[in-house]
Amino acid sequence: MNYQAKLKSQFTRLSPRLLTHGALATLVATSVVTVGLTSTVKAALEDSPKIVVDEVWQIVNNEFVGRNFDQASWQRKRQELLSRDYSSQAEAYKAIRQALRDLGDPYTRFLDPKEFEELTSQTTGELSGIGVRLTLDEATNVLTVVDPVDNSPAKAAGIQAGDRILQIDGQPTALMTVEQASELIRGEQGTDITLQLNRPGRGLFEVTLTRAQVEVPVLHSSLKQEGEVKVGYLKLDEFSSHAAEQMRKAIDRLEGEGVNAFVLDLRGNPGGLLFSSVDIARMWMETGTIVRTVDRKGGDRSYSANRTALTNLPLVVLVDGYSASASEILAGALKDNGRAVIVGSRTFGKGTVQSVHSLSDRSGLAVTISRYYPPSGVNISQNGITPDVPLDLTGDQVRLLRSNPSLWGTSRDPQYRQAISVLQSNVGRQPVLPPSLLPAPLSSRQDGKPAID
């Protein structure tokens, strides 16, 4: 399974869908800049699929970073691509994708207009819809509301967690997947949608809602009493443009509730915006380097903490093999600066940054423009970040957690239990324990059975 399919599949299983898809790269921004063409070339390509082909070629030629990138060969590729006749946009898209595959970089990729719109919604942290998280009820296989999003049409209409959606604009949902239902619910801002719902104690009823731009909550936080320690649990799904704002509010709220320590859960987080990860790192770190990027011309840029940390309370970060990209930037910065103890499995291992361009026909291109390195200087690509306290889940544990997302961050989650063990040893001491004082990993019972009851 390739990187994109692997992360998208895992992200879908780890948490209920919020009518959006997981971000799949470390992005510097979502650009809306279309590459300019000379007037002669533009006139020759007017209303031709070739104009998008040439836009893609120019972006790659100007920005792409690849260890074995041969610019002379890429010049020849342009002549080859523009010498063809394309009968449709779809045929041009196929040629573009093949040319990009030849670069040997899985993160430089073309997105058709629908894919580009989805990625834009993902990175901006907003979508046009009604603002509900959906799941299929395990017992009944009925499309069910997990919860409505704050400040959304669904919340304003009184839709509640547990409501069952039976029809969407007259179409029965009985055989729909969550993704299929999401496609019907999303739509242009200002348009109406009618849902038939069933609520225990109320029965059948209909609600008509007007779609609006909704901020996607990518952070889920709660205060947990673990023995004598009040733990702020923060589950970050991705690094959207609103992630830092949501993180700041959550930290401030938990500090006000008298929290003693934090667990930041980055498991299953496939990444997102580079600047979002830097902003969040600054909330935890008072000083120190966060990340360094190097472009193809050797340009070296370093991002550092700026004495704006919100807290110095003990922190444990949970990671796994699906923590990638911006997740690795944040985890690497906190680990290398001694600000947090990292618990879990080795991370995915993606050490490149992409920029995103919109093209003239509303399609898009993500292109690798630089490599990044944590403060230690270790090359993350293919290697990932090794936790301070390694703890892999067994197959049975993974299956149970995937089938019961509500168990993440509870006593039935072995990696979370390990994080709590670290914190209980740490509260009242320095912000981070030296490795020699860390508790031994909790892996399984002495009888060898999984440590999930």
TrEMBL record:
Residues 434-453 are annotated as: Disordered. The keyword tRNA-binding does not apply. SUPFAM superfamilies: ClpP/crotonase, PDZ domain-like. It comes from the Bacteria. Keywords: Hydrolase, Protease, Serine protease. Residues 116-186 form the PDZ domain. NCBIfam families: Cterm_S41_CtpB, prc. Belongs to the peptidase S41A family. This is PDZ domain-containing protein. It comes from Spirulina subsalsa FACHB-351.
